[in-house]
Specification:
By secondary structure, this protein is α+β, with helices and mostly antiparallel strands. Among the domains are: 7-107, Zinc finger, CHC2-typedomain (DNA Primase, Chain A); 108-242, DNA primase DNAg catalytic core, N-terminal domain (Alpha-Beta Complex), CATH 3.90.980.10; 385-447, no CATH class; 505-654. It is globular. Helix 11 (270-278) links the parallel strand 13 (263-267) and strand 14 (284-287). The strands form four sheets. The protein has a six-stranded mixed β-sheet, with helices on both faces. It has a five-stranded antiparallel β-sheet with strand order 1-2-3-4-5. It has a four-stranded antiparallel β-sheet with strand order 6-9-10-11, with helices on one face. The longest helix has 33 residues, at 592-624.
Length: 655
């Protein structure tokens, strides 16, 4: 198991990675001033570009929704990956080998290169299958799709393809693209016989299975011809890329809707995912040849931001015995979520694809809307096994249901279902049910069956601490109160900072000085650092940012990326969006020479303002002083005033 990535390696990856190149893979960026780029925000819907990237400081900031962060945070949010996964992906991108704490290891360069070859092979195979769907030999595949209500546009949207009949169509294609048989054996796309390897998928309709980042990692294939002796559905076997317990078909298409709507709909097959998405349920995904398990839950929780503040997971199952069994298996995993879990069962046994074909998109929506809490479904399914019209049946139903209710880990929810079970059984006294359930809970605890303390919450994937806190982990977050200064209730621990009036000339000048200090920290070198450190800011929010800069090692001013990162670490949490904004807002200069002049002028104005404030203080001291009583102090103050005035004039001369 890999340990924590060494901090210096994280810094190195962040420094070496061009954030613009990474963002360009997701967002179309256009120049918006010298060294600044803008595009439509990938985190919220907007018509005018407000998503700003400043490569020199390695950060992005959306002036519309307030999302901000560095290149690692961007990859985390876009791919819905953990901090470590994002760092490893970026390290692989630049060919940097990471080191891990406590003797842990990560992927070697050889492993990274091998993985990329596998991804390349899958990408080429995906393109090959898609092209084959348009050939005359794929008529049966096109007929199948049409018969399920999917036109050519739908097939293209989901990347459907066709594996030609024969033994080596794909094999010849990939060999022709430079892949060796040794490499192809690792892809899972080929079987091996006495005469060597041959195509695993032959004469089948193909669906590409992609990971959350959108890379093809495997394929699902449905048989089309009667003489095909294989199973109805055939998937890629376990490979270095494809782990079925960690794969959700459609996750690449659904991830944004899942994160936005905080809903995950789990269906049973490829065509069900297609039908749901085309009907407008764009949060639908499916497992690939396995039950929805622990690893799937980790992915789902990350997408749902499963933190107890909302969200729902809806399992859709057929109404037959197999579907009910699947739902009960889901019940066993349910309490790993803090999101509410539901079951939606179609009484006629129709799946979403069948529903869409026979009754239209509205029927698919109605199925999801008919969802019932998973706890209720599990209890009622248990009770269906008994004749509740008899005393014996009710007693048997009670005994069978008590362990199900006892498995509910949240005490208040468990009590509520005790009362509900009383009503479903037609029993007069809910206290008797509650007594039996509590006794079962205690017995289960003694047997070690509960596995966790009551109410301890989900066993989600443990994330490492966030980078802004000096270690590894969390993705960036959205910020309330609009861009700039984060809003929130004031408290003793977290002071409240108000956005300054932009019409205030002093606040405006202070803001411009902080923009220069963050974006062009080289101007703070030499004597300017002492002058800048000694400055006082009248605006509380700006003073707090200035304090954070003073607490940062001035040697970092030679490295703008690390400089901004460390200031972000030092500044109070509510002001991090403000620092991000100041670090990326375009400076009003179109050439390098103009930037140089602008930065010098702004800092000169800041230093001159500081001199003016110090002079005012000393003039006040001088006016309060009796020259006869303290002639030495009187003369010292006059000398200091003269020196300050000379310094002020020198600043103006240099500007």
């Amino acid at each position: 198991m890999p340990g924590l990535i060494k901090r210096e390696d994280i810094d190195e990856v962040r420094q070496r990675t061009d954030i613009k190149e990474v963002v360009d893979g997701y967002v179309t960026l256009k120049g918006a001033g010298l060294g600044t780029f803008k595009g439509l925000c990938p985190f919220h819907d907007e018509r005018s570009p407000s998503f700003t990237v400043r490569p020199q400081v390695g950060r992005y900031h959306c002036f519309g929704c307030g999302e901000d962060g560095d290149v690692i945070a961007f990859v985390q949010k876009q791919d819905h990956s953990s901090f470590q996964e994002a760092v490893e992906k970026l390290a692989a991108r630049i060919g940097y080998e990471l080191r891990y704490e406590d003797g842990g290891t990560g992927p070697s360069r050889e492993e990274v290169g091998r993985r990329q070859r596998l991804l390349d092979a899958h990408k080429i195979a995906d393109e090959f299958f898609r092209a084959q769907l348009l050939t005359p030999g794929a008529a049966e595949a096109r007929t199948f799709l049409h018969g399920r209500g999917f036109d050519r546009a739908a097939a293209e949207h989901f990347g459907c393809g066709y594996a030609p009949q024969g033994w080596d169509a794909l094999l010849k294609h990939l060999r022709g693209r430079g892949f060796t048989d040794a490499e192809l054996k690792l892809t899972g796309m080929f079987s091996e016989g006495n005469r060597g390897i041959y195509d695993r998928f032959r004469g089948r309709l193909i669906w590409p299975i992609k990971d959350i980042a959108g890379d093809t990692i495997g394929f699902g294939a449905r048989k089309l011809y009667e003489d095909d002796q294989g199973p109805k559905y055939l998937n890629t076997p376990e490979t270095a890329l494809y782990k079925k317990s960690q794969v959700l078909y459609g996750i690449d298409l659904a991830k944004r809707s899942i994160a936005k709507d905080r809903q995950l709909v789990v269906v049973e097959g490829y065509t069900d995912v297609m039908a749901c998405h085309l009907a407008g349920i764009t949060t639908a995904v499916a497992t690939c040849g396995t039950a929805f398990g622990t690893e799937h839950i980790k992915i789902a929780r990350r997408l749902l931001s499963d933190d107890g503040t909302g969200g729902e997971v809806v399992f859709t199952f057929d109404g037959d015995a197999a579907g009910q069994k699947a739902a009960l298996r889901a019940f066993e995993e349910d309490q790993r979520f803090t999101a509410q879990t539901y079951v939606a069962v179609e009484p006629t046994g129709a799946d979403p694809c069948d529903l869409r074909q026979s009754r239209g998109d509205e029927a698919v929506h109605a199925l999801v809307q008919s969802r019932r809490p998973l706890f209720e479904f599990a209890i009622r399914t248990t009770l269906k096994q008994f004749n509740l019209d008899t005393v014996e049946g009710r007693v048997q139903g009670l005994k069978a249901s008590v362990p199900v209710v006892a498995a509910i880990r949240d005490a208040s929810t468990r009590t509520g279902y005790c009362q509900a079970l009383t009503g479903w059984l037609g029993m007069p006294d809910p206290n008797e049910v509650l007594r039996l359930v509590n006794a079962e809970v205690k017995n289960a605890a003694k047997r070690g069956e509960t596995g966790r303390t009551q109410g301890s919450g989900p066993q989600g994937h443990q994330q490492q601490p966030g980078p802004q806190h000096g270690s590894q982990g969390q993705a960036g977050r959205g910020h309330g109160g609009g861009p700039g200064v984060a809003a929130g209730p004031p408290s003793e621990a977290v002071p409240s900072y108000h956005r300054p009036d932009p019409r205030d000339p002093v606040a405006s000048m202070e803001r411009q000085a902080l923009e220069v200090a963050l974006q062009e920290p080289s101007f703070l070198a030499g004597g300017n650092w002492e002058r800048f450190s000694a400055a006082r800011f009248a605006t509380p929010a700006f003073q707090a940012v200035h304090d954070a800069m003073r607490a940062t090692d001035p040697a970092l001013t030679a490295d703008p990326v690390r400089w901004v990162e460390q200031v972000m670490h030092e500044v109070p949490e509510p002001l991090r969006p403000l620092v991000s904004e100041l670090a990326v807002v375009p400076l009003p200069a179109s050439t390098e020479e103009a930037v140089q002049k602008y930065c010098r002028d702004i800092l000169s104005r800041l230093f001159e303002l500081q001199i003016t404030r110090v002079k005012a203080d000393k003039m006040g001291q001088l006016q309060r002083l009796d020259p006869a009583a303290d002639p030495e102090t009187f003369q010292r103050l006059n000398r200091e005033l003269m020196m300050l005035e000379m310094e002020r004039r020198a600043l103006r001369a240099d500007a």
